[in-house]
Amino acid sequence: MSRRRDGPVETPLLSVRDLRTRIRTDGGWLHAVDGVSFDVDRGETVCLVGESGSGKSVTCESLTGLVPQPPAEVSADAVEFDGESVIDRSATELRSIRGRRIAHVFQNPQSALDPVYAVGEQVTESIRIHEDVSRSAARGRAVDLLRRVGIPRARERLDSYPHEFSGGMQQRLAIAVALAGDPDLLIADEPTTAVDVTVQARLLDLFRSIVGDGTSILLVTHDLRVVAAVADRVLVMYGGTIVERGPVEAVFGEPSHPYTQALFDSYGETDGPSIDERTARGEIPADGCRFRAECPHAIDECAGGAQPPFHRVSGAAAHAASCVHYGADGDPSPIRENATSPMDSRAERESEGEIAESSSTATPNAEGEPR
User: Fold this and answer.
1) pLDDT of 64-83, one tens digit each?
2) Axis-axis angle for helices 167-179, 197-212 (nearest 10)
3) Facing residues of 33 across strands?
4) For residue 214, with 0-12 CB atoms within 10 Å meaning exposed, 13-18 middle and 19 or more buried, which class applies?
5) DSSP summary character for residue 49
6) Across 128-221, where does the E strand assignment appear?
7) CA torsion angle for 162, 167, 171, 172 (degrees, to 10)?
8) Rounded-to-10 torsion of CA 208, 211, 216, 221
């Protein structure tokens, strides 16, 4: 599924090094993002996956200055977009990048759509903010965008209001607004949450189409089925840091960090406290491996200092885990013995109906149609 090409390696579209975001609270500083580094290549889908409170959303919002400062403080060794630094840009400069070059789709579409303006006004406004075009030309582009995201009767629905659409349709409207500036990078935060499986299938088809047109995607999700369906690479987050990374086939075929294994093993369970709750109770260590308090393989070397460095694990060269057991003096065999592939291949899962079929064959339902 990778869209990287043979030959010289291109400069990543987005390159993040040692991103840190801490937020002042009544109880002191909360380290929401703690030393995160990753790249997103051109024409690639990278998924940030982890449980609630792991730092996925704050990571994405820190990249383009959406985290309020104060109470937050954001720093990094480097955040470069298309070869240029963005971490030291002013608020005005960041606004010129957001929407036009980097677009966000937020988890709650209701918060991204203004209830007092018609859909057409909101999409055409987004177009005209980024391009010098007439209102009529922008309205024509808006019709095309609504059709692209799967809104039926697009021209007449321009005059509808957000509350006249179902939740799944509102999510597609929010994506249309994000695509209005023809961005190079789309950051989508839990875009398939709270939609049924048929609408989810259509959204995943849409994301594949977007990447096929050349736009890169940084996708935040806790849904492993979504990751399996669209990701090129996976970044597994826990306690504000990345603990495992690699091509989707490698990470799913051989989950190598104990937290990744626990995440896959517990997929579908809803009981138990979130990371936010465990952090507030002091159950997640502030140093050493963040997962060691819950890790069945924790040893003395896991405590103290910084999060363990990344070590290559068997298989794909780009597959690495932040775990001392994979170091030169470590013994990863107990972890590997417990590793099981969390999912079958995409083809097998799709044939079993666990991942909904594409929108071309899915049966429409009330969620996928306008009210």
Assistant:
1) 888 888 888 888 898 889 88
2) 10
3) 21
4) exposed
5) E
6) 185-189, 216-221
7) -80
8) 0
CA-based nearest residue to 235, from 258, 251, 213: 251
Percent of residues, the chain, with pLDDT higher than 90: 19
Read off the tokens for 305: 């200092």
pLDDT in tens, 87-110: 877 777 787 788 788 988 887 777
Q: CA 53, CA 50: separation in Å to the nearest integer?
A: 8
pLDDT at residue number 361? 36
Q: What pTM did the predictor assign?
A: 0.81
CATH of span 14-231+364-368: 3.40.50.300
**What's phi and psi for 96, nearest 5 deg?**
-75, -20
For residues 281 and 278, give the distance between their C-alpha atoms in angstroms, rounded to a whole number.
5
d(CA 16, CA 40): 9
Question: Chain centroid to CA 360: how far?
Answer: 25
Check pLDDT > 90 for residue 321.
yes
Predicted confidence (pLDDT) per residue in 337-353, tens digit: 766 655 544 444 444 45
Residues 6+ apart with CB under 8 A from 112: 105, 106, 174, 177
Strand pairing class (320-322; 310-312): antiparallel
* For the chain, domain boundaries: 14-231+364-368, 237-340
